[in-house]
Amino acid sequence: MNPCDPTPWRDPQIMRKLLDRIAATVTRPWNIMEVCGGQTWTLARYRLEELLPDGLNMIHGPGCPVCVTPAETIDDAIGLAMRPDVIFCSFGDMLRVPGTDGSLLRAKTAGADVRLLYSPLDTLDIAVENPDRQVIFFAIGFETTTPVYALMAEKARERHISNLSILTSLFTVPAAVSAIKSDPDCRIDALLAAGHVCAVTGLDPYRQLASDLDMPIVVTGFEPVDMLLGILRAVTMLENGRSGLSNAYGRAVGEAGAANARAAVGRVFHLSDTSWRGMGIMPLSGMKLRPEFEQFDARRRFVSDREHVSVTNRDYPDSCIAHLIMKGLRRPADCPHFGKKCTPACPVGAPMVSSEGVCAAHYRYLS
Amino acid sequence: MTPHCPLPDRITTTVCMAHGGGGSMTASLIGEIFAPAFSNDYLNRRHDAATLPTTDCRTAFTTDTFVVSPIFFPGGNIGDLAVNGTVNDLLCAGATPRFLSCGFVIEKGFPIDDLRKIATTMAEAARVAEVEIVTGDTKVVERGRCDGVYINTSGIGYIPHGLDIDPGNIHPGDTVIITGTIGRHGMAVMSQREGLRFSSPITSDTASLCDIVGNLLDVVATPRVLRDPTRGGLSSTLNELAEASGVDIEIDESAVPVMPEVRSACELLGLDPLYVANEGVMLIIVDPADAAKALAAIRRSAHGADAAIIGRVAPTAEGRRPGVWVRMPLGNRRRLEMLSGEQLPRIC
Lengths: 367, 348
Known about the structure:
The complex is a heterodimer.
Chain A: H1 12-25, E1 30-36, H2 37-45, E2 56-63, H3 65-68, H4 71-81, E3 86-90, H5 104-109, E4 114-116, H6 122-129, E5 134-141, H7 146-158, E6 164-171, H8 173-181, E7 190-194, H9 195-201, H10 204-213, E8 216-220, H11 224-239, E9 244-247, H12 259-268, E10 269-276, E11 280-289, H13 298-302, H14 311-315, H15 322-326, H16 358-366
Parallel strand pairs in A: 1-2, 1-7, 3-4, 3-5, 5-6, 7-8, 8-9
Antiparallel strand pairs in A: 6-11, 10-11
Helix pairs in contact in A: 1-11, 2-16, 7-12
Chain B: H1 24-38, H2 41-44, E1 58-66, E2 72-73, E3 76-77, H3 78-92, E4 96-107, H4 112-129, E5 132-141, E6 149-159, E7 175-178, H5 184-193, H6 210-219, E8 225-227, H7 233-245, E9 248-252, H8 260-269, E10 283-286, H9 291-299, E11 308-314, E12 324-327, E13 333-335
Parallel strand pairs in B: 4-5, 9-12
Antiparallel strand pairs in B: 1-6, 2-3, 4-6, 7-10, 7-11, 8-10, 9-11, 12-13
Helix pairs in contact in B: 1-4, 3-4, 6-9
C-alpha cells in the first residue's frame, strides 16, 4: 500500500490485479459509459484508460450538474446577482461557467455580492443576519445534492425566514440516461451508475432502468479500485451476454438507499420536464419546488417571463461540441477549440469549467 | 523622545485616522507598539531611513505584501507570515537574511490589541530568523478600504562569496527534495475562513527556514536551486522551474509528503495538495551526488524532519514543451499543469 495514501481503494497492487482480470476477460470491443463527472475525473486523474485493453472504450457521460445547467439559467443567475438588494450564494464551480455573456465571477468583479459557500444551509444564517437583503442560493445538482436543498427550504419555513430563495437547476439521472440511450447514434453497451446517487435512490430505479434498456448497469464508486471493479463487472456481464443490475459499491450503497433523504425531497420537490445544457428539454428529468414551497422559488419571485431563445443558440457558441461530448458521441480532442480557445482559465463550454467536467479532466490530466 | 518615555497621548482601544496622521497619535502608536517590539540599534535612531553597514558580499533585496484573510489563523498570523515570507525569499537567493522593513496599512477601527499581537509575533519571528526590523511605516485608511491590516515587508540579505543559485544551473539527472509536508498553510487558512472544523486542527507551517538552508550549505557548496512553493503550491513552483530551465521535472506521487489531516481536508473540499499554498517548506534541487548528504542535513534541521526526495530532473522530449510530470503508483504518468485561476471546491 502506498504509505502516503493509506486507503485500499487506491492500492496499486489491487489496481494491477483488477487490470489483469479485465484484460483476461475482454475478447472484443466494448463501449462503457461512466455517468458521473467524479468518475470521469478519476479515470483522467489516474490515466486508467491507457491501462485498459485495446477496444475497451470509456464514454464520458453527462453527470456533472455544472456542465448541464443551461446557459439561460446562468444568465438568470447573473441577472439576480447584479441586483443591489441580492446576496447571491453559490458553490464555487458555478462561478466561472459562461452564460450567454459573462459569468458569475465577472458579475462579482463588477460589484455583485456573490458568495462562495460550501453548505447551502449557511444561507439560513446569512438571511437572518441580512433582513433587508434577498439571499438566493444557486441550487444545482443531481439526486445527491437535492436533499440538502429540501432540508434548507423546510428549515427556512420553520424559522419563518422570508428573504431566502433558491434558483434551481436540479436533474435526475435515469431520465437523462434513457434519453442518451435512445439516440440512434448511441453506441453504449454498458453503464457505470454513480454510486452516491444510488446511495440516495436505492437500487430499484436502476434495476428498472437496466431492464428497460436491456443492458448491464453496475453501481460504481469513485476511487480507482472502485472504477476498475465496476469495469470488470460490466465486461464480465457483457462477455456472458447478461443484462441487469450489479452493485460494485456495496460499502456505500444499500438496497433501500436513503429513505429519509428521499422523503425530504418528496415533500419539497416534484419531478418536472427540465432543460439540459446542449441537450434540450427532457421529460421528467429534473426537480422543481412544489406549489407549497413556491415562496422559496427565486425564478418565480424575481425573474420575469422573457423571450425564449433556442437552447442551442444560447448554450454553445462558436461551434463548441460539448453537447455531443456529453452524450458520448465525440471526444474532447475532436473539438476545434479544445486546449486552444477553450481552456479551464477561459472556458467556452461548460465541461471545461468544473474539475469534473469531461473537457477539463481531459485538459488537466490527459493532454 | 525615546520610545521608552512616558507618552502624553495614551492610545485608544481601536485604530483611528489620527494614528496615521503623523502627529502625536502616530507617535504613540509607534512608541507603544512597534518600537518596543522591534527595538534595535538601527531602528532606535529613529531616522527617516535606517543606515546600514556595507559588506563586500553581493546583496539580495526582496519585497512581499501580505493580505491574508483571516488575519489570525491556526499556527500563526499575518505578522509572522510577513516576516517569514520575506526571510524565506532571501534564503532562496542563497542570502543570509539581515534587515527587514515593514509597512502597515491599517483599517480604521482595527483593535489595538490585535495590532499588538501582530507586532509581538513579528518580533518573535524576526528573533528566530536573526533579522532586525530596521525601518517601518504606518498608514490608516477609512473603514472598508482595506481588510483589517495589510503588511509589506522588504528584506536585505548578503550572499556568501562563490554561491550562485540560478534555475539555469539545473541539469537532467538532478535530484528534487521537498523539506516538509505540503499544503498545511493553505488548508489551515481555508479551514479557518470557511469555518470548517476537523477533529485534529490543521495548523499553518509558517516558519523561517534559516536552519535548513544553513545546514544544507554546510554540506552542499552550490545547490542548484532553492524555492519556496507559496501561492499556487508545489505544482506552480515546479512548472516555473521547468520552464525557466528548459527541462522536465518528474515527481513520484507517493513520495510527496502530505499529512493525513491535510489530505483529508483537501479531499473534502475537492482540492489537490500539489496546488495548495505552503509557507514553511522549500523545494531544493541538488546534484544527485549531493542528494543523500543534503537530505540528511535538512532532516536534522528545524522544520526539516519530514524532508523527502520526491523526484528528478529529466531531459525534455524532442518537440515537447518543458513541463512537470507526476509518476503514479502504477508506473504511468500525467502532466502536472500550473494552477489556472483559483482552485475551486468540488460541489457533489
